[in-house]
Amino acid sequence: MARAALRWGVRDLAREAQVTAATITRIEAGKPAHASTLKAIQEAFETAGVEFIPENGGGPGVRLAKKTIR
Which of 13, 16, 25, 56 is 20 to 30 A (C-alpha) from 3? Predict the structure, then answer.
């Protein structure tokens, strides 16, 4: 969901998280991953403006953060 919101492909996310595209593909297929890899992916998304939403009755999710005007 986060990749789609950013309009990123697998290679875009891999580049931003500094992992391989194969790693992203494996994780998206439900394969296990190291905690450090998942953290790198989460940090890449958060840097790009994605907010992770906790379980609130409808399940966990993501959204794009509001842009602040400076």
Answer: 56
Coil/strand/helix, residue 6: helix
- Report the number of distinct structural domains present in the chain: 1
pLDDT at 65: 74
pLDDT (tens digit per residue) in 22-64: 999 999 999 999 999 999 999 999 999 998 887 776 666 676 7
Whether 70 is covered by a domain: the verdict is no
Residue 56's domain spans which residues? 2-64
User: 38 lies in a domain?
Assistant: yes
